[in-house]
Every structure is written in structure tokens, then in C-alpha cells.
Amino acid sequence: MKTAVILAVVAVALADKLAPVPLPVAILRSQQVNPDEFGAHSSDFEAENGIQFQFSGSQGATGGSNMIGSWSYLQEDGSVASVQFVADENGFQPQSDLLPVAPAFPHPIPQFVLDQIAFAEEENKRKAEEDN
């Protein structure tokens, strides 16, 4: 349930980043299913300003909550920003084009790094010769 609260706060924080919208914003859809005896729960929300948030979950093997879901909102340029996620024993795992991506490997190694590696190799050789 803590995850649901955190995700709701994230949704509100993301909504704050949107262009100013005349208040009030109509809620187009809001449905919530509270945990049953097996821990199954879900929530689905949509506002007229384009914010959507939905998730479903159940009790995990270790007693925590396993969840899958997504949220989206309209950006200033009119495009839709969206995030899909899984939250389980392995942590929170978001997927989105909005998230940064590490450079492809192998990437070029900068010269200063190569110089440092060569220096370390020379030091190791020198030390090995001194020990003999």
C-alpha cells in the first residue's frame, strides 16, 4: 500500500509540472478496488487534462505488494509522456522513453583513462622487479 501512496504522490508531482490549467479539472474516470483476502487491489484514474494513472497488484510471496501499472500526462508540446512500471521483490522497475539511457558498450575509452591504465601497469612491473 505504501507503493500506491508513493505512486500517487509521484502522479501529483508530475501533474504540477504541466502548464497551468484552469481549476477545477474534471475527473473522467476513477475506480478503486481495495485489497481482497488475497491482497489483490487496483486503481484507475483519468482527468480531463490528460493525466492517467492505473495499477493493479497482489500480495507477493514475501508479504509485500507486487504491482504493475502506468501513468501518463500531456507535455507542453502536446505529446504524451508515459511510464510503465513493475514493482515487486526486485524493486521498482520503470520503463519509459523519458528515462536516460546509458551509452552503448563498448564505447570509446578516453585517452586519459588509457594513460592511467598504462601508468598502473608500469608501476606494477616496477614493484614486481623491486620485490625480486
What's a concise summary of this model?
This protein has 132 residues and is an alpha+beta fold. Helices cover 27% and strands 35% of the residues.
Key attributes of the depicted protein:
132 residues; alpha+beta; six-stranded antiparallel sheet; 2 helices; elongated
Q: What would you say this structure looks like, in words?
A:
- The protein has 132 residues and is of the alpha+beta class.
- The chain has one domain.
- The chain contains 2 helices and 6 strands, in the order αββββββα.
- The protein has helices at 2-16, 111-131; strands spanning 27-33, 41-47, 52-59, 65-74, 80-88, 91-95.
- It has a 6-stranded antiparallel beta sheet, with helices on one face.
- β2 and β3 form a beta hairpin.
- The radius of gyration is 24 Å and the shape is elongated.
- It starts with a helix and ends with a helix.
Distance between the termini: 64 Å
Shape: elongated
Measured as a percent range, the helix fraction is 25-40%
Q: Give me the count of strands.
A: 6
Count the helices. How many? 2
> What series of H and E elements makes up the topology?
HEEEEEEH
Q: What is the radius of gyration?
A: 24 Å
- Share in β-strands: 25-35%
- Strands across the major sheet, in which order? 1-2-3-4-5-6
Our count of domains comes out at 1
What are the segments in which pLDDT stays under 50 over at least 5 consecutive residues?
Answer: none
How would you classify the helix and strand content by structural class? alpha+beta
Main β sheet profile: 6 strands, antiparallel
- The overall average pLDDT, rounded, is 86
